[in-house]
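Q: Protein A?
A:
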Amino acid sequence: MLNRFKVWRERRILENEPIDPALWDAGLRALPMLARLSDEETARLRRLATLFLHQKRFLGVRGLQLDPAMALDIALQACLPILNLGLEWYEDWVTIIVYPDDFLTEHEYIDEAGVVHREQGPRSGEAWERGPVLLSWAEVAHGEALVVHEFAHTLDMRNGQANGMPPLHRDMSVDTWSRVMNEAFENLNQYLDHGAEPPLDPYAATDPAEFFAVASEYFFADPGTLARTYPAVYAQFCGFYRQDPLGRFPAPD
């Protein structure tokens, strides 16, 4: 009965809150990472984005006025990672706060000696375990896959903390995932330790959680680089995200 009600409710949302066709076409054109999607995948992305826009609460702060095109831009990037997972992977939180530019956040942590430290610094994005997701519109509009990065963190935190280990599917091995991610993480840090140009954004070397988020950016926005550099990571991501970006038909010129 509950499943039938859910299906009925979603159908009503899709019928009563459709995305404007012109806005949809412009949104697709603005994001090259969507160019490889098939017609069937694009249709499913549209369904997910419509439901996402209905379920999530968007808040522009510090004078930022969010218009439908901006909200759709965020929704498209947020829904791409869950294209074959489902919107329930984002069910633990509701609010998305969008700043016009970078914002200051304060974090507290305890070191190995038991000393409490507080640090404050500018951020372009941040995801909290139960929400909200914080984004800088300046970075989102710049096209750096910031949204994919932060929403990858929300997937990671479905296990309770951001540690680079999202809830894996039953057909995936925790041991294999851990080994592959740790080897790639250590390899990336070796590049930096030797002063060499790293194959991925050096921010991925911060900790395993950031490695997962940055590598997720590459998986969707630049899959060729991730597959060439860390093919085992790419293969694990194909299994987790249930997608193979390189296996799709060639993107148009």
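Q: Protein B?
A:
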Amino acid sequence: MTQNQWNAVDGYFDAVFGDEDPALAAAAEAHIGFDLPDIGVSRSQGKLLHLLALVQRAERILEIGTFGGYSSIWLARALPPGGRLVTIEWERSFAETAAGHLARAGVADRVDQRVGRALDILPDLAKTAEEPFDLVFIDANKPDTPEYFDWALELSRPGGVIVVDNVVLGGAVADAGNPDGGVRGMRRFHEKVAAEPRVSATTIQTVGSKGYDGFTLAVILPGQQDRPEATDLP
């Protein structure tokens, strides 16, 4: 299989399901304005997040890594009346662009945008959050993913779901000697998840318009959520 074939297959399914509207299409092109590669999730991946939120009957969702708001729109549209998405973005210009896309999509009223370093915001969120999250989506700085997972576990309810994107990194995750910080972070993340008795998890390799990568799905086992004090976390 080649990238051209993966693109063609994704294009076929995108055309068959026809899920994307102008607001989503605009958010999907956010990278162009920043002269960046297309680093957001694909249309099919966005729809998968939407469906996971629906299956989970999620009323509270946490997203670490907003970028242009594409995945945020998919997640927010899965929320019931009164539901809330908290999304964190380090880069202010990305967050401001996302705000426009969220407004255009008609979901800004159910999204709480936080701007700053996630590892600074998450401890405050743990202190102030009234209810735990039903679903957490992590798609941010790869070296810090193990710590994001720690906080996702802290902030989620028993039975909650944690989804992490870009965990295969084109297959580089299998190379124990790779010095790249993102690869080392993902290897450390997987080792942490495997050693965590409170979750059951798997990682799935993916191909498509975003190339060869994968995502991890972790479920917090009911009755297993013995939360540590927030001060004990990184």
